[in-house]
Design a protein that fits this description.
The protein is mainly β. The strands form six sheets. The chain has a four-stranded antiparallel sheet with strand order 1-2-3-4, with no helix packed on it. Strands 5-6-7-8 form a four-stranded antiparallel sheet, with no helix packed on it. Strands 9-10-11-12 form a four-stranded antiparallel sheet, with no helix packed on it. It is globular and about 45 Å long.
């Protein structure tokens, strides 16, 4: 599902019942798993939140601070319907998307506030350089900025999901099996990769029977994140891989 580059520079992968780190040599290491000490539950959204710490969204409707190295989780908020993307912004403000209700929330110092409602399938979230939340409104085919009302930033997309923000550019994942870069200064957009293995249909996970933490619809959610060197990492939910997109100098 979601991806994040941690403070240590390594790529971390939220894969539901497993949490992985991808080492520089490409090897995959299990950092946590369901029923291991302190594991927060079926992981969907993922955001770095300091050394060895991540804020996560679970299919059980929880937002939590997870420290896999210590085997500890602090639950920050609960009772939400189909959580997906989560991001940590200025002042440790956490913003997260609740697809089941069409709402986007902020969480700070234990207080939850509704930032937007009536959205069509909000999924991915991020902050722009001015600390304003950006949301992938998948059902409407657009990205909106939340500054009072929902302001369209990018439109004409096909079921946008995860996205990453870097230097005034949005790197978007779309159900059209593409990664799109959109420059907020100029309005220019470009397809940087296409024909990617993206997109199983929404499913109900039969293996979840008997486990209240994952007895929720498991729709597709494909994350993307940027590394410090500009590499884009893409979760290819169509075949269970993680892809690295790098600029080729010619």
């Amino acid at each position: 599902m979601d991806l994040a580059v941690g403070d240590d520079g390594n790529l971390y992968v939220a894969d539901g019942t497993y949490f992985y780190v991808v080492r520089p040599d490409g090897s995959l290491e299990t950092v946590g798993m369901l029923f291991s000490p302190g594991y927060p539950g079926f992981l969907r959204g993922l955001a770095p939140a300091g050394p060895g710490t991540f804020v996560v969204a679970t299919s059980g409707g929880q937002i939590a601070r997870y420290r896999p190295g210590d085997g500890e989780t602090d639950y920050l908020a609960d009772g939400f319907d189909q959580l997906y993307g989560v991001a940590v912004g200025p002042g440790d403000t956490i913003v997260f998307a609740e697809l089941g209700t069409g709402r986007v929330h902020s969480l700070r110092s234990g207080d939850v506030e509704v930032l937007a409602s009536g959205l069509q399938d909000p999924v991915g979230v991020a902050f722009d350089t001015n600390g304003r939340p950006l949301v992938a409104e998948s059902g409407a085919g657009r990205v909106v900025r939340l500054a009072g009302a929902a302001e369209t930033v990018v439109d004409g997309l096909q079921r946008p999901q995860g996205f990453s923000w870097r230097r005034n550019a949005l790197h978007r994942r779309c159900r059209a099996k593409e990664v799109i870069t959109f420059d907020l200064n100029t309005g220019d957009r470009a397809v940087v990769a296409s024909g990617l293995p993206i997109g199983p249909p929404p499913v109900w996970n039969p293996a979840a029977q008997g486990n209240a933490a994952v007895l929720r619809p498991q729709g597709p959610f494909a994350g993307i994140t940027a590394g410090p060197d500009g590499t884009l990492y893409v979760s290819a939910d169509g075949d269970g891989s993680v892809l690295a997109l790098r600029r080729v100098n010619t």
